[in-house]
Amino acid sequence: MLTFQTPLDLVRVLRPETPIACVRPDRVGAAASWFQNNFPGDVLYAVKANPSEWALDAMYEAGMRWFDVASLNEIELIANRFDDAILAYLHPIKSRHAIERAYFEFGVRIFALDCEEELQKILEATNHAKDLTLVIRMAVSNDGSTMPLTGKFGCFGNEAVSLLQATRAHADELGVSFHVGSQCMDPHTYRVAMDTVSATILQAAVTVDIVDVGGGFPALYPGMNPPELQAYVDVIEQVFEEMPVLFNADLWCEPGRALVADSTSIVAKVEMVRDGKVYLNDGAYGNLFDAAHCKWPFPMEVHRPSGKISFHKKPFLIYGPTCDSLDVLDGTFDLPADIAEGDYVEFGMMGAYGTAMSTRFNGFGETTAYRVRDSISQTMFDTESAAERSYENNIIFFPRKEA
Question: What are the structural domains, with CATH classification, of the chain?
Fold first, then answer.
């Protein structure tokens, strides 16, 4: 992988015609190391957040061996890359074919479920195997999250009680899991969730071997100021010690966004500027899905391969390259007043659900990754290796304005 000091150096040399992912493996390594050194249990990387080979390799080099996978493709990706990886198939609803291949071909023994129908499917697809670790996904409050994930998965109430009892009869190890929602801003949310799970365990009167607190750990987006990650770990560790589980029960977590968000920025070329609108070669159907749909403030900077950019700014709409009018970022953005065709816009904090969400709609979507040594974004982790920007403009955060 080619390496550049900064994205500006990259665009000056390459003048790329397709979107670029500027990647920083050291950021991934720092995040993976922090979680493994500070979380009092096993850390499973949620592969869906960023399945790029460079990111996975950085995780592995930092000691990560547990992976949360959600599909056969993710299972194959990790199993074929890392011989000693431990795979947890934590999607609550899977096809029989996928379960069968995961168990017999790839040696997966950890499966999630949230209903009795899925329990029966797992048992039948594995020929009623006796070495299964079955993890019940429970529904909990997402009140502290910026992006709630309730409604699609998770059991609760009497259904959860019955499922715990039914699953205990077949599981070599029984686990409980939940998800507090993405970008959780309040550590107390984990306490509320774990208390909910504890009440259900007591009602079911079963022994539990594993507590999986899921993901939801935040990244440091502009304008968002979550508590330090240690505050989340402290709450989880304290409540875990109070839960009605086996004295030697294991504690798991599944960070995704927190491990990779600040590792990547996306550089898109300006194809046209007219009537207060900027048209880019990347957008909502590409690497900028989160920037278009999350309505969060992402750090941005405009690069000009030759010459300087005006410090005077004015509001612009930003459109992607496809023919769909939905391919637009929400609101307006204060960009340099003289932004023009041939300039490049860099979007920071796109390491989570950036390239992973890109489609090939309208024939767009081709993205090339290059390593850079600088940083456009803040981080929840210490990274001493990030180099200073070497060009004229300081890092600028263009705040989102409501349309």
Answer: 3-23+262-401 (2.40.37.10), 25-260 (3.20.20.10)
